[in-house]
Amino acid sequence: MESWWFGNGRPRYGSRMSILPGATKKSFAGRDLRHRTLDRYSFKLCDFRGVDLRGASLRGVSFAGCDLRDADLRDTDLSYARFSYVVTHDPEYGRTDVTGARWHGADLRGVTAKRVIGWPHGLSDPGVTSG
């Protein structure tokens, strides 16, 4: 996967990723997305396994049915982000998975988590709601 708009901050005409702001069924696995601003982006059924999002601004982002296992979310601004699921034919498919994600220093004010796999129940931010 060659440099998308995430790579250098400018869109590349003819690049494989032209869906803005967000993506459906795209893989960002293992990518370095530190300090990116992705506020209010919507991601559906995307692969974020092992992605480095340290220090990123993800305010109001929607992760629906995304795989965030082992993602590095330290010091990210996730205020008012939504972690949810996508209704599919298989009740286990389409759920967001955050197993092993690192959260230290993340701003979780107003975060909503619905039917999320691996959600750390001990997250200390009082603004997190789950269902």
From TrEMBL:
InterPro entries: 5peptide_repeat (IPR001646), Pentapeptide-BTB/POZ_domain (IPR051082)
SUPFAM superfamilies according to UniProt: Pentapeptide repeat-like
Annotated TM spans: none
Name of the protein in question: Pentapeptide repeat-containing protein
Lineage of producing organism: Bacteria, Bacillati, Actinomycetota, Actinomycetes, Micromonosporales
